[in-house]
Write a structure and sequence with these properties.
The complex is a heterodimer of chains A (229) and B (114). Chain A is built from 12 helices and no strands. With 229 residues, chain A is mainly α. The longest helix of chain A is centred in the first third of the chain and has 28 residues, at 8-35. Classes of the chains: A mainly alpha (229), B mainly alpha (114).
Chain lengths: 229, 114
């Protein structure tokens, strides 16, 4: 068992490189925005460590700037992150045997960690739990590094415009992998229609939760006979 | 000092709200991992969520305004082709991201879509 663990960290490192390419510039962008509020840079690191939610942290810059109330903030962040409820459903099985690592794995279940772990199979010889831990930990490491360096630098002069497309490309690659593995049109068709409909009805800023809700409801209702009994 | 306790309170609230969304399914459905509905969702949700995430990642692309979503569509197309061809995730993502950065940073599109 010992020897087979040796390849797990390099495998996790390779798997998370695209997330690094996305988290470093996105985290730096958050750090830059956050530093304009006038707080010490270490608070940007603290948020990356304790909250670890990209879209919520960007939202928080606006909320902190506007002196928003705690209740308002809690509700907004919950709704914004409500998509993570869906991730939990499909990770129940994978995380069932993770023991004392589970609290951290659940805490670190971001969009990108979920996207990597729900598709990628850990190297067959490796301990899956370790692979999940390394992927989650590395992703958070990149995020903390990005947020901290952005807040410290106050102004990086590299032209990284477009580098955040790495996250889009990551989702595209994982979608292709899903298409090759699942070989059924149905989930793609349902989700694609739900996504386009949500974009048209509620607009780009609120489409994620709406699209996921429509997708979940349609999937459950339409395939009812398949799982009853 | 009021400023600091406000920031601490905000961080605590954000942490709690985020952890709640991530932990609720695990807390509510403990021990029911083999329920047929959950197995069905475990199989069908990943492809569905990935489809939604791709649309979400492209949500700000405007087809009306120049350059009519060309950088995004071309880069997504290149990513898909590269992946179907070589099936190496890093290569596909690198190719797509490199193409996108070139298209949005260089002046080349200004000549095509003035």
């Amino acid at each position: 068992m010992r020897a087979s663990n040796r390849g797990t960290f390099p495998a996790a490192l390779r798997a998370t490189v695209p997330v690094m390419a996305g988290y470093l510039p996105l985290g730096a962008a958050f750090g830059l925005l956050f530093s304009e509020l006038g707080y010490h840079w270490a608070w940007a690191s603290a948020m990356a460590l304790l909250v670890f939610a990209g879209s919520a942290q960007f939202l928080a810059v606006g909320l902190l700037g506007a002196n928003a109330g705690l209740l308002e903030t809690g509700v907004a962040v919950f709704l914004l992150n409500a998509r993570h409820l869906f991730y939990g459903f499909s990770m129940l099985g994978r995380y069932a045997e993770s023991g004392r690592l589970k609290p951290y794995l659940v805490f670190g279940l971001t969009d990108e960690t979920y996207a990597l772990l729900c598709t990628g199979h850990p190297p067959s010889t490796a301990d899956a739990r370790r692979f999940y831990l390394y992927v989650t930990g590395l992703n958070q490491f990149y995020w903390v590094l990005g947020c901290t360096s952005g807040a410290l630098a106050g102004g990086l002069h590299l032209n990284v415009t477009g580098l955040d497309f790495a996250l889009t490309a990551l989702f595209v690659v994982l979608l292709v992998e899903q298409a090759l593995a699942v070989r059924e049109w149905y989930p793609f068709l349902v989700a694609g229609s739900a996504g386009v409909a949500a974009l048209a009805i509620v607009g780009p800023d609120k489409m994620l939760l709406a699209a996921l809700t429509i997708t979940l409801v349609v999937l459950i209702v339409s395939r009812r006979p398949a799982w009853v009994n | 000092m009021g400023e600091l306790s406000y920031l601490l309170g905000m961080i605590a609230v954000m942490m709690f709200a985020t952890v709640s969304t991530r932990a609720l399914p695990f807390v509510l459905l403990r021990g029911r991992e083999h329920h047929p509905l959950l197995e069905y969702l475990g199989r069908f949700l990943p492809p569905a969520v990935m489809t939604v995430l791709v649309i979400y990642a492209l949500r700000h692309v405007s087809l009306e305004a120049a350059p009519h979503g060309f950088p995004e569509l071309a880069s997504v197309g290149l990513t898909v082709l590269a992946h179907l061809w070589v099936r190496n995730a890093l290569l596909s993502i690198g190719a797509g991201t490199g193409a996108y950065m070139y298209l949005v940073q260089s002046e080349i599109l200004l000549q095509v879509f003035p």
